[in-house]
Amino acid sequence: MPSIRPNTYHLVSLGCAKNTVDSASMAQLLDQEGYTPIDEPGCAEILLVNTCGFIEPARQESLRTLRELAKRKRRGQWLIAAGCLTQRYGEEIARQVPGLDGILGTRRWMEIVQLVRQVRGDQPYPPSPSREGVAALYATPVATPVEPPNVLRAAVQGASAYLKIADGCRRPCAFCAIPLIKGPAVSRPLPLLVEEARRLARQGVKELVLIAQDTTDYGSDLQMKDGLAQLLEAITEQAPEIPWIRVLYAYPGAVSDRLIEVMATRPQILPYLDLPLQHAHPSILRAMRRPANIDWVYRTLEKMRRQIPGLTLRTTFIVGYPGEGEAEFQTLLDFVREIRFDHVGAFTFSFERGTASEALGDPVPAEVKQERWERLMAIQQQISLEIHQSLIGKRLDVLIEGQGTARAGNGRQSARLISVGRTYRDAPEIDGLTIIEGKAPLGEIVPVRILSAMPYDLHGVIENP
Question: Does 142 reside within a domain?
Answer without folding.
Answer: no
